[in-house]
């Protein structure tokens, strides 16, 4: 039987989601401030708009991350994430994307358990916090035990293609109990090799800068902003379907 590998595109708005789906993406991960912070929790209005564009919640996973920086969270932050998860799932999202670590190293099991409970039947995706650990392979069984449905990882490398051997080992270790999704600096030309490594999905941002040159004014930041590029999404779709 032919193995089906999903294509996920990171988007920041409904326009990006529309571009992703129109050009063949299976799923989007929604976040905000991707370039500036690595991604933060989007507003409820953006969540609703993207869910409407997707037409079905199973096509949308939402990043829930309360601030930039590392992934060791205080009790108050863990509570905020749980509240955001409940709201996002209530709005109809099919997945939530989270990650929490202990200061001493390893997964913050209590935070993940609490967030899994808040997510209910929605998928729980553990994000690239895994790539900050010395031995990501060592926590595969732990993530499965905690109820993670999918993990987004570059195999511990800056770019997924450089972590392809670890990605293959993660896929082997997960053995179908949890999806392994390659993500981190993915280019279209990397997709064949990533799929060959055995991953279940490939994740990329497929972004470019907008053509907007309207002055942003003092305090408004740089002119322009990131948008989802239809040509990159379409090329990624062709690559993943042909892999």
From TrEMBL:
Gene3D superfamilies attached to this UniProt entry: Copper homeostasis (CutC) domain (3.20.20.380)
Subcellular location: Cytoplasm
InterPro entries recorded: CutC-like (IPR005627), CutC-like_dom_sf (IPR036822)
Keyword Cytoplasm: yes
A Pfam family annotated for this UniProt entry: CutC
Origin superkingdom: Bacteria
UniProt keyword annotations, A-Z: Cytoplasm
Annotated region described as Disordered, given as residue ranges: 207-227
Main localization, broad class: cytoplasm
Protein family per UniProt: Belongs to the CutC family.
PANTHER family in UniProt: COPPER HOMEOSTASIS PROTEIN CUTC, COPPER HOMEOSTASIS PROTEIN CUTC HOMOLOG
Name this polypeptide is given: PF03932 family protein CutC
Organism of provenance: Microbacterium profundi
Organism lineage: Bacteria, Bacillati, Actinomycetota, Actinomycetes, Micrococcales
